Amino acid sequence: MLQPIIGFAGMSHLGINSAVATAERGFHTICFDEDTSLIKNLQNKELNITEPQLPELFSKNIELNRLQFSDDASQLYQCDIVYLSHDVPTNGQGMSNLEIIHSLIQKVCKNLSPNAILVVLCQVPPGFTRQLQKIIPLSRLYYQVETLIFGNAVNRALFPERFIVGTANVNMELNQTFQQLLLAFNCPILTMNYESAELAKISINCYLVANISVANMLSEICEKIGANWSQIVPALRLDKRIGQHSYIMPGLGIAGGNLERDITTILNIAAQYGTENSIAKAWLYNSRYRKSWVLKILHQKIFSQYDDPTLAILGLAYKENTNSTKNSPALALLENLKSYRLQVYDPVVDYVIVPWAVRKYSIEETISNADVLIIMTPWDAFKALTVNDLKKYMRGKMIIDPYHTLQGTNFTSAEFEYFTLGQGCLC
Fold first, then answer.
1. What share of the chain is helix, strand, coil (3-state, %, to 5)?
2. Which residues are CB-neighbours of 68 under 8 A, at least 6 positions away?
3. CATH number at 293-426
4. What's domain 202-290's superfamily in CATH?
5. Given this structure, which CATH class describes domain 6-196?
6. Are 237 and 244 in contact (CB under 8 A)?
7. Predicted structure pTM score
8. What b/e sequence results for 242-258 when a residue is b if at least 16 CB atoms lie within 10 Å of its CB, and e otherwise?
9. How far apart, in whole angstroms, are the C-alpha atoms of residue 151 and residue 323?
10. What is the pLDDT of residues 320-378, one digit of tens each?
11. Which of 15, 173, 218, 314 has the most beta carbons within 10 angstroms of its beta carbon?
């Protein structure tokens, strides 16, 4: 059987990583986007996103002629399968804007060959895919749950745990060409109806949010009673009902956009059908409450004692290994610190987003003469900081490190005040 040609419509984060992973599996891909400047950059091997492994695999597969980029939708006519792979934008309330997706679908369907199939890969609310029968036969339409995780997107796309595929008829075999593509990834394939597949992705994210919310609640109790959440975590992971890979580390609220969007979707469905939704509301409340953790410490320990403190902020991305700042805890914090002296550094994020802070170009320059060090993104580069470094460059002796980036360092013996989630102050 000849190798099918795979198309990707939408070269945002989801599309680029999915296309590169598909090319790495040996398939020729045609990558379409309406943004001419973006396509030109990709053709020139210029990426606008940061992901581990992505630059190397991107360049490799361009050299092998497996990645082709175009702003001409008619190029998709060559494809046997076209993925709708544009990220779905969300607003500050977690609401999806599907206008760009509807527009893209119209353009793609006009340029599909008569036997090609369309696979909706971008995350959409339940009921979305079936409605597309107005413009494409259901026999040529599938929904596939995306496995994207920012900071680990390429690896997840290359080695998925499973494929979840929504189809019009679960009693019929998948299209043979589509099966050929999916089988190349050597993982289980779960088929279900469109609505189940659309809700499956939301369900996965809801379980993740539930775990995070429980960890946030219990870690705050640890901070108050002298317990240590990091000591409790190994006990939880050894319980088979929880497991080794559970999201049980505390954080500063929901970040990144996708999780909050899915909670909002559940709340909207609950309102429409009259189902119980108090748990989902509690998750959002917990997230908003936890976002102020760093700011509370600053008000309690710094702003009441210093007239004009200098704050060093390391990290602007919402998590390590990505340049995304969607719902970033760091940006939320900086919005509340505009009247203070701020020195900021992030290895990959564009600093234009925080024009009221002083941009620095190294860790050492950022912490120089700072009264407080705040580590908002646990980049590997920050983990190398030592007590001697801090003594050498800093003026003050206070560190706020929510994610315990500097774990293993004894700050109390060096007379530093050290704050981290799940432990409170190690003073």
1. 40, 15, 45
2. 28, 29, 30, 31, 75
3. 3.40.50.720
4. N-(1-d-carboxylethyl)-l-norvaline Dehydrogenase; domain 2 (1.10.1040.10)
5. alpha beta
6. yes
7. 0.89
8. eeeebebbbbbbbbbbb
9. 9
10. 999 888 889 999 999 999 999 999 999 999 766 788 999 999 999 999 999 999 999 99
11. 314
